[in-house]
């Protein structure tokens, strides 16, 4: 009899989320009394707006929300998502083309699981969010990284994508605004990439979770609005987490062609059934209620964005492109490597992140979590005072 492993190779090969790992370590140090300032977590520091919370309280008291509901989501929420998709992504869809998921991560996982067969390749512009390659691998796919550094503003070109395309390429992942870089593709760049994908018959999975968080008058044009003919081969992933400070409510969604959504709905019917009805009612209120709080948060992020970029770029050895979306900066820290700092000479951004945590009590995510070494991700979705103090500590450390 052949020897079997205790758990499957598929599951044992999954790496823990680097962002959550660093955030957990930072919180453990804080709980132990260390004055750690964490730029690790990608979540707003604001409370969920009151009217959304009140909608959830009312929903919790209503017995109809105490029972199973359709696995693909509450009909009225799917209608609201369809309306948002038309408003913000320029794509008219039926509510039947919407699935409500347990956060954006489930939508990402289901999108890859629905499209990929073993060996299918996914072109992934890099730096990438740490979950994408894991979700691709779980679906049997192969991640093909296409890297764009700080010299390109972290934006890949059509020429780079074409060089990475092979007969096994099935999907292009498109993310704008980006996590981890905050980079936003211009309308011209988005259109060129969309036309390239369309001409080559590729599917596109576009993660639009940050589409409402842009700055300096920049708009994150949806790839399906730029190239409408792509709509039959595009899955849009989105959710309420970032825009409405609802990370803990776990409501995301996927929108796409009828056959893909039917397949994903079948998967979800066995995987998780319906999302919590209380959370769905809260998400419905978020999408259909007043948007004033969203703008207040966006303006706060904008202020912090300018502050952190200015502060980091005062440090010799750090180059921080100005992000145009999301709430992250992605400093190029190669100028700090292979130099002694407090008796330690880091050679990678992983070692540099450890040094920063140990000597400055500041938590950042090393670039290895998102692709090549030489970078760190810092979220500026934390209080102004903590943000300023953290940057000041880095300025002292690397003076």
TrEMBL record:
Keywords: Aminotransferase, Pyridoxal phosphate, Transferase. The keyword Transferase applies. It is an enzyme of class 2 (transferase). It comes from the Bacteria. CDD domains: AAT_like. One of its GO terms (biological process) is amino acid metabolic process. Its EC number is 2.6.1.-. Its cofactor is pyridoxal 5'-phosphate. InterPro entries: Aminotransferase_I/II_large, AspAT/PAT-like, NHTrfase_class1_PyrdxlP-BS, PyrdxlP-dep_Trfase, PyrdxlP-dep_Trfase_major, PyrdxlP-dep_Trfase_small. One of its GO terms (molecular function) is transaminase activity. Residues 36-392 form the Aminotransferase class I/classII large domain. The keyword Chaperone does not apply. PANTHER family: ASPARTATE AMINOTRANSFERASE. Belongs to the class-I pyridoxal-phosphate-dependent aminotransferase family. This is Aminotransferase. It comes from Subtercola vilae.
